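seq:
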Amino acid sequence: MKKKVVLTLFLILGLLGYVFAEQQPGMMQGQQPGMMPPAQPSTPTSAIDERFQKANQWLNEKNLSVTTTPDQAFINDYILVVAEGLPSATAKSPAQKRLTAERAATVLAYRQLAEILDGVAIVGDTFVKDAELQYDVVRAAVAGFVKGAQVVFKEYNAQEESALVMVKIGMTGPQSFSKLMYEKLLGDPNVKKGVLEPQHAFKPKPVVLEEKFDGLIIDATEQNFRPALINRIFTPKGEVLYDPSKISQKVLVEQGCGEYTNNVDKAKAALESRGAKNPLMVKATATVSPSDLQVSDDDAVKIFSANQKSQFLASAKVAFVLK
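struct:
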């Protein structure tokens, strides 16, 4: 537990930055808001320990970790960012100092949240940050979503006059980022036609399988595969075996395209939570794009045949095992 706390502390410290609610007197020319003031003395270790003790305790109690990459957001099913802010130079009373420090920390946390969301892959090689020209509806949705994110933790140190703020959003479920994105993608005819409608669907003759499978685990540990809002599975001929058109719209909006883990046992547990007790396991043979996988012809037929009986693709009972 001690190692976990220390690790979390260093992770937080690596992400923290200082930001002012407004530019302050005495700031060096050219210095941007959000940068550490050049004349600040170093903070003693004892003060740091006191400052982050409650934050570490809260993270451990909630079994949460600070999000550093978009892939981690998919695996954990949430994004959590942390930031520290200082009071405005014009704040006079203790209450004003606290409020302006918390506001500054919140602004920086939202900025970090936006940076992570910008790196979320939509489909193929398209990231949220690259979607502006093609899908301006996506960019507008992300900007509004960031503004509406909720603060889940606040701590103010009166002695150091600094506030610590954590902001967290869910990746799936009600009021989640994925829900917002899928609704926007499904609601825009141009986006839907280019991204969500099936192309070259795989329709082989089904084969008889000895077992009844009710889910699918794709082992992508040997591939440079990236989670995305839309992950697809292809055959070697480029036929689509799994894409959003195979998933019911309700499931897609509420649960996404599947589960993401870093080992098979976690994948089985994740699918069991979705009602799948005997998933078919196959290994990805290649990537079509960083967020699209390819399986062998034989495995493609197995997946298609198993799904004919259980219809697990429509329920997104699919788990991707990453490196």
